Amino acid sequence: MxxxxxxxxxxxxxxxxxxxxxxxxxxxxxxSVGIATPYNEIxxxxxxxxxxDVDQKLNLxxxxxxxxxxxxxxxxxxxxxxxxxxxxxDCKNRISVVHNGIIENYKELKDxxxxxxxLFKSETDTEVIPHLIERYMDEGHDLEESVRKxxxxxxxxxxxxxxxxxxxxxxxxxxxxSPLIAGKNESEYFLASDVPAILKQTNNxxxxxxxxxxxxxxxxxxxxxxxxxxxVEKEVHIIDWTPEMAEKGGYDHFMLKEIHEQxxxxxxxxxxxxxxxxxxxxxxxxxxxxxVACGTSYHASLIGKYLFESLMDIPIDVVxxxxxxxxxxxxxQETLVILITQSGETADTLKSLRIANKKSKTLAxxxxxxxxxxxxADHVIYTHAGPEIGVAATKTYVSQLACIYLLAIxxxxxEELLERLNQIPEEMEKILKKEDQIISIAHKYKDVxxxxxxxxxxSYPTAxxxxxxxxxITYIHAEGYAAxxxxxxxxxxxxxxxxxxxxxxxxxxxxxxxxxxxxVRARGAHVIxxxxxxxDVLRSETVxxxxxxxxxxxxxxxxxxxxxxxxxxxxxxxxxxxxxDKPKNLAKCVTVE
Length: 593
Ligand code: F6R
What we know:
Blueprint: E1 3-8, H1 14-23, E2 32-38, E3 42-48, H2 51-58, E4 67-73, E5 88-89, E6 95-103, H3 106-115, H4 128-138, H5 143-153, E7 156-164, E8 170-176, E9 181-184, E10 189-192, E11 204-207, E12 213-217, E13 221-225, E14 237-238, H6 254-260, H7 262-270, H8 273-282, E15 288-293, H9 295-311, E16 316-320, H10 321-324, E17 335-341, H11 347-359, E18 361-366, H12 372-376, E19 379-382, H13 395-411, H14 418-422, H15 424-432, H16 435-445, E20 450-455, H17 459-474, E21 477-482, E22 500-504, H18 510-522, E23 527-532, E24 543-548, H19 558-575
Helix pairs in contact: 4-5, 7-13, 7-15, 8-13, 9-13, 9-17, 15-19, 16-19, 17-19
Residues 294-297, 341-343, 346, 349, 392-393, 468, 472, 590 line the site of fructose -6-phosphate.
């Protein structure tokens, strides 16, 4: 994962700006942070820890120089330490590098470089890069050529930013299978892992392709070159997200803000109906759909399966992206592979997309404009959730669901369901008003060790997503289970110390799920019921009921019913003193397989 930034500013100090940008990338990793600028020598401040803590200790903005590079790390090779933090320099301290990605052949390269006499200071895969560049510069190549040669030696994925004291006024970026964008104002130039990182500085964005090299040059501005080194003319996109859209707006955490933004995110996504109709016209003669995704996006795909199979006579598969390469043999041109990914940069999903592109038609449902999935899929539908900063996906999930509902409605030609779909944002607004009740439930259960989440049909993926949210941001063990499966094993775990969250909307599965609620209550479990406020079983004394409107029937429950589960996890997280925006070991965008 990791986040990288580089900038050349006109006549102001670069370090405070780099610090500001890198803070907006903290969702990509927060094991360590570092900034380097070329001055008389390479000025470098870095250490392990969250950005604010390291900044307090080292005063990261206090580095001279009008240009530089910065990094936040999500550790892959080498534990979080100062030595393993980026930027990394060469032996002579004349070249500095920040890197996002994984260098798979770093061990061979490191051994080779050590034999040549290079001295390494860290355990990272990244450190081979400045030494390789040093090797080629020592052979007489300029920085650009040396970076090109060094990256030709690398196997794996990378987005890099590099400068050398020997070529002042220049920062070079290059990418393969890791995201990198560039941005520019009249006389200020940037590169970064994503758009929100530099949105406050500029909204003129250039998207880069694999193999392309971007050169930020004090005199020549932003120049992009292809693999052969030819200059390529790139379109400059004007991004209409405001920096405020990527900031907290008065909420304690991004996650809470993003939960509250969900009715708007769904409304905005539903407004993209025309875009979806157009795609539906283009994807005729489809006899099978295969959804591919990871994590929360996988849960959205599972809802897709229940929905499409309710509305259309067409087989639907759902495959975890990390498993897709082992099961993709039956794809053909009559199969539509739908890849769901909010970031559009998830390595497992991108790999699946490349496999699927060879054999079938592909459609990517993505939130991040210009991300890799949008450039590689045959068709693209955007969710209109705006930037999501909290690591745990919330508003992008409900927007993915809104897209899936529109797609299923148009593909099945059941437009009469649109009216029902359009009521959902209002229902979500009503549920958000129940936050105080959910806070008291969160306080009651914050110290338990294990949770079960159960549901049937459409509510089964909702239960899985509820359990995932709880695990991610509270570190409580939770399992999302098909309610009918409990008696085939996990019921043995249920007692008065294991609360069960039951997702019970009115509809086909309702009565059977209520029977399962009775089963767990009979074994002493405390139940948190999410369902109709008119249900007698859920209104009993041993159930904490989050009572929702009767009108939210099973088929349309997936979007509104996830809201109380997100709020429950969020408030348990806060009550436990955890920062829900930055759960340990996780990063927003998983660019490694
Ligand atoms: C959970 C979460 C992750 C992502 C997963 C896929 O809250 O955010 O499980 O859903 O890493 O990410 P995308 O959708 O960007 O492919």
